[in-house]
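Note to self: keep these together.
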Amino acid sequence: MNLLKTYLETPRHVPTIAIVGGPESGKSSVLRHLKQHLRVHTVPEVASCLLPHLPPCAPTFETWIAPFQHAVLGVQLPLELVAHAHAERNLSLRAVITDRGAPDLRAYLPGHLPLELVTGEYDLQALGSMYDHVLYLESMSEHGSLSQDNNVLRYEASVEEALALSGRTREAWQQACGNRISFVPVFETLEAKLEAALEVVKDWLNIEHERRWVLPERPSASFEKPVLLRQGYLNPQSRVRITETSAELVVKTGSGALRRQLTTALGREAAEQLLASCTPSFRKEREQLTGNPLVTLDTYEDGTRILEVESRHATRAPEVPFALPPGSREVTEDPAYNAYRIGLRLCA
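Structure:
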Protein backbone atom coordinates (compact mmCIF):
# COMPACT_ATOMS: atom_id res chain seq x y z
CA MET A 1 0.00 0.00 0.00
CA ASN A 2 1.75 3.17 -1.23
CA LEU A 3 -0.08 5.44 1.21
CA LEU A 4 1.01 3.37 4.20
CA LYS A 5 4.58 3.36 2.89
CA THR A 6 4.44 7.15 2.59
CA TYR A 7 3.11 7.49 6.14
CA LEU A 8 5.76 5.26 7.66
CA GLU A 9 8.57 7.02 5.80
CA THR A 10 7.39 10.58 6.54
CA PRO A 11 9.29 12.21 9.46
CA ARG A 12 6.88 13.27 12.19
CA HIS A 13 8.02 15.76 14.83
CA VAL A 14 4.83 15.78 16.91
CA PRO A 15 3.98 12.66 18.96
CA THR A 16 0.91 10.57 18.14
CA ILE A 17 -1.24 9.07 20.90
CA ALA A 18 -3.93 6.50 20.08
CA ILE A 19 -7.03 6.16 22.28
CA VAL A 20 -8.11 2.52 22.00
CA GLY A 21 -10.26 -0.11 23.69
CA GLY A 22 -13.20 -2.40 23.14
CA PRO A 23 -16.90 -1.49 22.82
CA GLU A 24 -18.20 1.01 25.38
CA SER A 25 -14.75 1.93 26.65
CA GLY A 26 -15.42 5.67 26.25
CA LYS A 27 -12.92 6.42 23.46
CA SER A 28 -14.87 9.24 21.81
CA SER A 29 -15.72 10.84 25.16
CA VAL A 30 -12.07 10.72 26.22
CA LEU A 31 -10.98 12.21 22.89
CA ARG A 32 -13.37 15.16 23.34
CA HIS A 33 -12.21 15.64 26.93
CA LEU A 34 -8.54 15.70 25.93
CA LYS A 35 -9.21 18.19 23.14
CA GLN A 36 -11.04 20.43 25.60
CA HIS A 37 -8.22 20.47 28.16
CA LEU A 38 -5.00 20.04 26.16
CA ARG A 39 -3.36 21.75 23.18
CA VAL A 40 -3.74 18.80 20.82
CA HIS A 41 -5.09 18.00 17.37
CA THR A 42 -7.60 15.13 17.32
CA VAL A 43 -8.55 12.60 14.65
CA PRO A 44 -12.06 11.08 14.97
CA GLU A 45 -12.91 7.40 14.62
CA VAL A 46 -12.97 6.76 10.87
CA ALA A 47 -15.11 3.61 10.95
CA SER A 48 -18.03 5.47 12.55
CA CYS A 49 -17.80 8.09 9.79
CA LEU A 50 -17.92 5.44 7.05
CA LEU A 51 -20.43 2.92 8.42
CA PRO A 52 -23.53 5.04 7.65
CA HIS A 53 -22.59 4.88 3.97
CA LEU A 54 -22.71 1.08 3.72
CA PRO A 55 -25.66 -0.23 1.67
CA PRO A 56 -28.74 -1.06 3.79
CA CYS A 57 -28.50 -4.74 2.86
CA ALA A 58 -24.81 -5.35 3.45
CA PRO A 59 -23.47 -8.83 2.65
CA THR A 60 -22.32 -11.15 5.42
CA PHE A 61 -19.69 -9.92 7.85
CA GLU A 62 -16.78 -11.91 6.43
CA THR A 63 -17.38 -10.69 2.88
CA TRP A 64 -17.44 -6.99 3.66
CA ILE A 65 -15.14 -6.56 6.66
CA ALA A 66 -11.80 -6.83 4.77
CA PRO A 67 -12.64 -4.25 2.05
CA PHE A 68 -14.22 -2.05 4.72
CA GLN A 69 -11.08 -2.11 6.88
CA HIS A 70 -9.06 -1.32 3.75
CA ALA A 71 -11.30 1.72 3.26
CA VAL A 72 -10.86 2.72 6.93
CA LEU A 73 -7.08 2.62 6.60
CA GLY A 74 -7.27 4.55 3.32
CA VAL A 75 -9.09 7.40 5.08
CA GLN A 76 -7.28 7.27 8.42
CA LEU A 77 -3.76 7.62 7.01
CA PRO A 78 -4.44 10.89 5.13
CA LEU A 79 -6.30 12.28 8.16
CA GLU A 80 -3.33 11.55 10.42
CA LEU A 81 -0.85 12.99 7.88
CA VAL A 82 -2.91 16.18 7.59
CA ALA A 83 -3.18 16.35 11.39
CA HIS A 84 0.61 16.14 11.70
CA ALA A 85 1.13 18.82 9.06
CA HIS A 86 -1.23 21.11 10.96
CA ALA A 87 0.36 20.39 14.34
CA GLU A 88 3.87 21.01 13.04
CA ARG A 89 2.83 24.40 11.66
CA ASN A 90 1.11 25.29 14.93
CA LEU A 91 3.85 25.10 17.56
CA SER A 92 1.36 25.39 20.43
CA LEU A 93 -0.03 21.91 19.68
CA ARG A 94 1.60 19.20 21.80
CA ALA A 95 0.35 16.04 20.11
CA VAL A 96 -1.93 14.37 17.58
CA ILE A 97 -4.48 12.13 19.32
CA THR A 98 -6.50 9.56 17.38
CA ASP A 99 -9.71 7.69 18.18
CA ARG A 100 -8.55 4.14 17.40
CA GLY A 101 -5.59 3.41 15.14
CA ALA A 102 -4.21 1.13 12.45
CA PRO A 103 -3.52 -1.95 14.69
CA ASP A 104 -7.29 -2.17 15.32
CA LEU A 105 -7.46 -3.78 11.86
CA ARG A 106 -6.18 -7.05 13.34
CA ALA A 107 -8.94 -7.12 15.94
CA TYR A 108 -11.70 -6.71 13.35
CA LEU A 109 -10.40 -9.06 10.68
CA PRO A 110 -11.49 -12.71 11.10
CA GLY A 111 -8.60 -14.77 12.41
CA HIS A 112 -8.14 -16.75 9.20
CA LEU A 113 -7.65 -13.58 7.14
CA PRO A 114 -4.04 -12.30 7.13
CA LEU A 115 -3.41 -8.70 8.11
CA GLU A 116 -1.39 -8.27 4.91
CA LEU A 117 -4.65 -8.62 2.97
CA VAL A 118 -5.25 -4.99 3.99
CA THR A 119 -1.74 -3.68 4.72
CA GLY A 120 0.35 -5.31 1.99
CA GLU A 121 3.89 -6.02 3.21
CA TYR A 122 3.47 -4.31 6.60
CA ASP A 123 2.97 -6.30 9.80
CA LEU A 124 1.42 -5.37 13.14
CA GLN A 125 4.67 -3.95 14.56
CA ALA A 126 5.01 -1.65 11.55
CA LEU A 127 1.48 -0.35 12.17
CA GLY A 128 2.32 0.09 15.86
CA SER A 129 5.34 2.25 14.98
CA MET A 130 2.90 4.95 13.85
CA TYR A 131 2.02 5.64 17.51
CA ASP A 132 4.32 6.97 20.20
CA HIS A 133 1.97 6.10 23.04
CA VAL A 134 -1.32 4.26 23.47
CA LEU A 135 -4.08 4.83 26.01
CA TYR A 136 -6.04 1.58 26.37
CA LEU A 137 -9.44 2.13 27.98
CA GLU A 138 -10.91 -0.91 29.70
CA SER A 139 -14.36 -1.68 28.31
CA MET A 140 -17.67 -2.19 30.10
CA SER A 141 -18.00 -5.37 28.04
CA GLU A 142 -15.06 -6.77 30.00
CA HIS A 143 -17.33 -6.55 33.06
CA GLY A 144 -20.35 -8.20 31.45
CA SER A 145 -22.23 -5.08 30.35
CA LEU A 146 -23.14 -3.82 26.87
CA SER A 147 -25.50 -1.13 25.64
CA GLN A 148 -26.29 0.15 22.17
CA ASP A 149 -27.28 3.58 23.47
CA ASN A 150 -24.08 5.48 22.69
CA ASN A 151 -23.30 3.92 19.31
CA VAL A 152 -26.15 2.76 17.09
CA LEU A 153 -23.61 1.60 14.50
CA ARG A 154 -22.14 -1.10 16.71
CA TYR A 155 -22.59 -4.56 15.25
CA GLU A 156 -21.65 -6.67 18.32
CA ALA A 157 -24.93 -8.34 19.18
CA SER A 158 -24.03 -9.76 22.58
CA VAL A 159 -21.80 -9.30 25.58
CA GLU A 160 -19.86 -12.37 24.46
CA GLU A 161 -19.10 -10.85 21.04
CA ALA A 162 -18.11 -7.53 22.60
CA LEU A 163 -15.90 -9.27 25.15
CA ALA A 164 -14.16 -11.25 22.40
CA LEU A 165 -13.58 -8.05 20.41
CA SER A 166 -12.15 -6.33 23.50
CA GLY A 167 -9.73 -9.20 23.97
CA ARG A 168 -8.62 -9.12 20.34
CA THR A 169 -8.17 -5.35 20.51
CA ARG A 170 -6.02 -5.53 23.63
CA GLU A 171 -3.92 -8.35 22.15
CA ALA A 172 -3.41 -6.51 18.85
CA TRP A 173 -2.21 -3.32 20.51
CA GLN A 174 0.05 -5.14 22.95
CA GLN A 175 1.69 -6.97 20.05
CA ALA A 176 1.96 -3.74 18.05
CA CYS A 177 3.23 -1.35 20.72
CA GLY A 178 4.56 -3.42 23.61
CA ASN A 179 5.36 -1.25 26.65
CA ARG A 180 4.15 2.00 25.04
CA ILE A 181 0.67 1.41 26.49
CA SER A 182 -1.01 2.95 29.53
CA PHE A 183 -4.16 1.20 30.81
CA VAL A 184 -7.16 3.09 32.20
CA PRO A 185 -9.62 0.88 34.14
CA VAL A 186 -13.40 1.14 34.33
CA PHE A 187 -14.58 3.72 36.89
CA GLU A 188 -17.95 4.12 38.58
CA THR A 189 -18.60 7.27 36.58
CA LEU A 190 -17.59 8.44 33.13
CA GLU A 191 -16.35 11.70 34.64
CA ALA A 192 -13.85 9.83 36.81
CA LYS A 193 -12.58 7.89 33.80
CA LEU A 194 -12.21 11.09 31.75
CA GLU A 195 -10.13 12.70 34.49
CA ALA A 196 -7.97 9.59 34.89
CA ALA A 197 -7.29 9.50 31.14
CA LEU A 198 -6.47 13.21 31.14
CA GLU A 199 -3.93 12.78 33.95
CA VAL A 200 -2.20 9.89 32.16
CA VAL A 201 -1.84 11.88 28.93
CA LYS A 202 -0.74 15.06 30.74
CA ASP A 203 1.90 13.10 32.62
CA TRP A 204 3.20 11.52 29.41
CA LEU A 205 3.26 14.83 27.51
CA ASN A 206 5.24 16.50 30.30
CA ILE A 207 8.24 14.35 29.47
CA GLU A 208 10.92 16.56 27.97
CA HIS A 209 13.56 14.96 25.72
CA GLU A 210 16.54 17.29 25.44
CA ARG A 211 20.23 17.02 24.53
CA ARG A 212 22.97 19.60 25.15
CA TRP A 213 26.36 20.37 23.64
CA VAL A 214 29.06 22.81 24.79
CA LEU A 215 30.44 24.69 21.79
CA PRO A 216 33.90 26.25 21.49
CA GLU A 217 32.60 28.80 18.96
CA ARG A 218 29.40 29.92 17.29
CA PRO A 219 27.98 27.48 14.74
CA SER A 220 27.57 28.61 11.14
CA ALA A 221 23.78 28.06 11.22
CA SER A 222 21.39 31.02 11.10
CA PHE A 223 19.77 32.07 14.40
CA GLU A 224 17.12 34.64 15.32
CA LYS A 225 17.88 37.84 17.24
CA PRO A 226 19.12 37.08 20.81
CA VAL A 227 16.67 37.39 23.71
CA LEU A 228 17.94 38.37 27.16
CA LEU A 229 16.88 35.94 29.90
CA ARG A 230 17.12 36.66 33.60
CA GLN A 231 17.06 33.35 35.40
CA GLY A 232 17.37 32.13 38.97
CA TYR A 233 16.90 28.95 40.96
CA LEU A 234 14.85 28.42 44.11
CA ASN A 235 16.40 24.93 44.22
CA PRO A 236 18.13 22.75 41.61
CA GLN A 237 14.76 21.65 40.17
CA SER A 238 12.81 24.93 40.30
CA ARG A 239 13.71 28.02 38.29
CA VAL A 240 12.27 31.47 37.71
CA ARG A 241 12.79 32.99 34.28
CA ILE A 242 11.96 36.52 33.15
CA THR A 243 12.17 37.98 29.65
CA GLU A 244 10.98 41.29 28.26
CA THR A 245 7.59 39.76 27.45
CA SER A 246 7.06 36.85 29.86
CA ALA A 247 7.73 35.43 33.31
CA GLU A 248 7.41 31.82 34.44
CA LEU A 249 8.14 29.27 37.12
CA VAL A 250 9.44 25.92 35.83
CA VAL A 251 9.78 22.74 37.87
CA LYS A 252 11.76 19.84 36.38
CA THR A 253 12.25 16.31 37.64
CA GLY A 254 14.68 13.70 36.39
CA SER A 255 18.10 14.24 34.85
CA GLY A 256 20.00 13.76 31.61
CA ALA A 257 18.06 13.54 28.36
CA LEU A 258 14.61 12.61 29.72
CA ARG A 259 12.93 14.90 32.22
CA ARG A 260 9.45 16.01 33.17
CA GLN A 261 8.73 19.72 33.06
CA LEU A 262 5.83 21.68 34.56
CA THR A 263 5.52 25.37 33.66
CA THR A 264 3.39 28.07 35.33
CA ALA A 265 3.07 31.65 34.09
CA LEU A 266 3.79 34.34 36.69
CA GLY A 267 2.80 37.94 37.07
CA ARG A 268 5.70 40.36 36.66
CA GLU A 269 5.73 41.55 40.29
CA ALA A 270 5.57 38.01 41.73
CA ALA A 271 8.30 36.87 39.34
CA GLU A 272 10.62 39.72 40.36
CA GLN A 273 10.10 38.91 44.04
CA LEU A 274 10.87 35.24 43.48
CA LEU A 275 13.92 36.01 41.34
CA ALA A 276 15.29 38.25 44.11
CA SER A 277 15.27 35.25 46.47
CA CYS A 278 16.99 32.89 44.01
CA THR A 279 20.51 31.51 44.31
CA PRO A 280 22.09 31.39 41.81
CA SER A 281 20.67 34.23 39.72
CA PHE A 282 22.23 35.25 36.40
CA ARG A 283 21.66 36.49 32.86
CA LYS A 284 22.16 34.77 29.53
CA GLU A 285 21.30 35.38 25.90
CA ARG A 286 19.20 32.85 24.05
CA GLU A 287 19.05 32.52 20.28
CA GLN A 288 16.54 30.35 18.45
CA LEU A 289 17.50 28.55 15.27
CA THR A 290 15.77 30.24 12.35
CA GLY A 291 12.56 28.33 11.63
CA ASN A 292 13.03 25.83 14.46
CA PRO A 293 12.19 26.85 18.07
CA LEU A 294 13.29 23.43 19.36
CA VAL A 295 16.97 24.32 18.77
CA THR A 296 18.43 27.09 20.95
CA LEU A 297 21.87 28.52 21.67
CA ASP A 298 22.50 29.97 25.15
CA THR A 299 25.48 32.26 25.76
CA TYR A 300 26.31 32.85 29.43
CA GLU A 301 28.07 35.84 30.98
CA ASP A 302 31.42 34.03 31.01
CA GLY A 303 31.15 33.16 27.31
CA THR A 304 30.03 29.53 27.79
CA ARG A 305 27.92 28.44 24.82
CA ILE A 306 25.36 25.65 25.29
CA LEU A 307 23.37 24.32 22.36
CA GLU A 308 20.10 22.68 23.39
CA VAL A 309 18.07 20.50 21.05
CA GLU A 310 14.62 19.41 22.20
CA SER A 311 12.32 16.74 20.79
CA ARG A 312 8.56 16.65 21.16
CA HIS A 313 8.89 12.87 21.20
CA ALA A 314 9.60 11.27 24.55
CA THR A 315 10.75 8.19 22.66
CA ARG A 316 12.88 9.76 19.89
CA ALA A 317 16.26 11.31 20.62
CA PRO A 318 16.65 14.82 19.16
CA GLU A 319 19.39 15.43 16.60
CA VAL A 320 21.33 18.59 15.68
CA PRO A 321 20.10 19.71 12.23
CA PHE A 322 23.45 21.24 11.22
CA ALA A 323 27.19 20.54 11.49
CA LEU A 324 28.66 21.36 14.91
CA PRO A 325 31.91 23.36 15.17
CA PRO A 326 35.06 21.24 15.65
CA GLY A 327 35.71 20.53 19.32
CA SER A 328 32.02 20.55 20.31
CA ARG A 329 31.15 18.06 23.04
CA GLU A 330 27.85 16.56 24.12
CA VAL A 331 27.19 17.25 27.82
CA THR A 332 23.62 15.97 28.18
CA GLU A 333 24.57 13.61 31.00
CA ASP A 334 27.17 15.92 32.58
CA PRO A 335 25.58 17.84 35.47
CA ALA A 336 28.43 20.36 35.41
CA TYR A 337 26.84 21.86 32.30
CA ASN A 338 23.25 22.21 33.40
CA ALA A 339 22.09 25.79 33.88
CA TYR A 340 21.97 25.50 37.68
CA ARG A 341 25.64 24.43 37.95
CA ILE A 342 26.77 27.02 35.41
CA GLY A 343 24.89 29.65 37.42
CA LEU A 344 26.66 28.59 40.64
CA ARG A 345 30.03 29.04 38.92
CA LEU A 346 29.03 32.47 37.63
CA CYS A 347 27.96 33.58 41.11
CA ALA A 348 30.99 32.17 42.94
